[in-house]
Structure formats: structure tokens, C-alpha cells
């Protein structure tokens, strides 16, 4: 009997990179959310900070799971594609999914529309002025 020949794409590096990238984007989204709430002083009281602290492991965990899931889906979709697309599609899908989830997290948790902010530095939508206008929140 001959031992099974290892596949050339069996490296765990893309999976580890997608996991770490997703976790990092989740952590960055959480940090951006904390900054926005603190800057606008909306939902940054004791209860709001507790909620944010409980959301940290959730944001990082979802990001860490979304990265490899997007990589797996991208690899499955790219199988019949030409070699260049076979390499690019999974990476682009990881970027799109993780940044999309981060944007959604910030839009739903970081900008509490209608929440009375005390700082006076933000409009009623509680979107910080430093947020780019071309990116909806």
C-alpha cells in the first residue's frame, strides 16, 4: 500500500490567516463602536459599557468564524474558474464578508440613532463627524 499523496493546497496557512483576519476585523469593529459611543456620549453610561464589554467576545468570535466560512465558500465557488480567479475569489470574499459584518456591527451598535447624547459633538443620528459621508452608517 502506498500512503496517500498529500494535496498541494492542504496548507493550513490560508485557514489560519482567514481566522486571524476575521478576528482582527471583529475587534477593530468593536473598538470603532466604542469610540463612536464615547465620542457622542450616546449609550456610554454604565449599562452601555457593560453591553459593549459583553459584545467584544461576540464580535471577535463571529469575525473569526466568518473568515474561514467565506474562504470555504469562495474555494467551492472558484473550483471551475481559471487559476487566477481561483486564487483571488476566496480572498476577495473573505474581505467582503468580514468588512461587511464589521460595517453592519458599527451601524447597528455604534450609532444609536435617537439616543440622547450628552456631548453635543454629534447630530441626532449619533454618527461621529469623522465618519466618511460616502459610507452609510
UniProtKB/TrEMBL annotation:
<feature type="transmembrane region" description="Helical">
    <location>
        <begin position="12"/>
        <end position="32"/>
    </location>
</feature>
<protein>
    <submittedName>
        <fullName>Uncharacterized protein</fullName>
    </submittedName>
</protein>
<keyword id="KW-0812">Transmembrane</keyword>
<feature type="transmembrane region" description="Helical">
    <location>
        <begin position="52"/>
        <end position="73"/>
    </location>
</feature>
<keyword id="KW-1133">Transmembrane helix</keyword>
<keyword id="KW-0472">Membrane</keyword>
<feature type="transmembrane region" description="Helical">
    <location>
        <begin position="85"/>
        <end position="106"/>
    </location>
</feature>
Amino acid at each position: 500500500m502506498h500512503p496517500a499523496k498529500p494535496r498541494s493546497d492542504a496548507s493550513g496557512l490560508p485557514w489560519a490567516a482567514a481566522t486571524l483576519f476575521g478576528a482582527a476585523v471583529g475587534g477593530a469593529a468593536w473598538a470603532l463602536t466604542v469610540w463612536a459611543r464615547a465620542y457622542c456620549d450616546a449609550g456610554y453610561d454604565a449599562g452601555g459599557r457593560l453591553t459593549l464589554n459583553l459584545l467584544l467576545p461576540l464580535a471577535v468570535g463571529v469575525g473569526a468564524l466568518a473568515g474561514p466560512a467565506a474562504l470555504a465558500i469562495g474555494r467551492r465557488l472558484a473550483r471551475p474558474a481559471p487559476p487566477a480567479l481561483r486564487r483571488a475569489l476566496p480572498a476577495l470574499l473573505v474581505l467582503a464578508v468580514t468588512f461587511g459584518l464589521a460595517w453592519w456591527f458599527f451601524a447597528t451598535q455604534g450609532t444609536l440613532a435617537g439616543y440622547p447624547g450628552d456631548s453635543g459633538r454629534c447630530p441626532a443620528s449619533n454618527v461621529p463627524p469623522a465618519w466618511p459621508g460616502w459610507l452609510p452608517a
